[in-house]
Specification:
The chain is 34% helix and 21% strand. By secondary structure, the chain is of the alpha+beta class. It has a 6-stranded mixed beta sheet. Helix 3 runs parallel beside helix 5. The longest helix is centred in the N-terminal third of the chain and has 25 residues. The C terminus is likely disordered.
């Protein structure tokens, strides 16, 4: 038993025991604590853009896909320019409006802008929002991050000439790389670098 009246050597023993107990408590806390990233984010979502939503003030990037940027232009089946980024955001907002259930997002990572990157579904279980966006041609599978997870949905969209696939576009990741250019729409969407 440690007390204030212990001799100097006994005090050192008390401090060592206290230090050991403190270290054990800290270790136990670290081992049992779940990282904040592991917590699902659930709630009504608002749309930021075609691949980003917000729930309870948390920005969430949809995992594995890339949608056109808000100011990005594409060509429709009539060769006319249209705001494909704006159309993607509108499509996502429409989906969330038509199925008015809470969105459940399972975090996978954080991006360089500190957004949570997550697989999000409408309800639980429910449709994968990213899959729907790709299947309907409003976003692209981003194999760099998805490992080709949405490739089949993209192939179906392309065969059906859905959304972006009805005309021509530049992949959003390539568009961002050349945003300093004055003309952002070019060539055939199948021409890949």
């Amino acid at each position: 038993m440690c007390n204030l009246h212990s001799v100097a050597s006994a005090s050192r023993d008390c401090l060592r025991r206290f230090d050991l107990i403190l270290r054990l408590l800290i270790s136990a806390t670290l081992l049992t604590a779940r990282p904040a990233m592991a917590e699902n984010i659930i709630g009504l979502a608002s749309v930021i853009d075609g691949d980003t939503i917000e729930i309870h003030g948390t920005r969430i990037r949809l995992w594995g896909i890339d949608a056109p940027e808000g100011n990005q232009l594409c060509r429709g089946d009539d060769s006319e320019l249209y705001r494909c980024g704006q159309k993607a955001a509108t499509a996502l907002a429409g989906l969330l409006y038509v199925i008015p259930r809470p969105v459940t997002c399972v975090p996978k990572d954080r991006d360089r802008y500190s957004r949570v990157v997550a697989v999000c579904k409408i309800g639980d279980p429910g449709p994968d929002i990213a899959h729907w966006m790709v299947l309907n041609g409003h976003a692209l599978d981003w194999p760099k991050y998805s490992g080709g997870h949405y490739t089949e949905a993209q192939q179906r969209a392309e065969r059906a000439s859905a959304g972006l696939w009805a005309g021509s576009f530049v992949e959003p990741w390539r568009y961002r790389a050349v945003t300093g250019m004055s003309f952002h729409v070019c060539g055939d969407q199948r021409a890949r670098a």
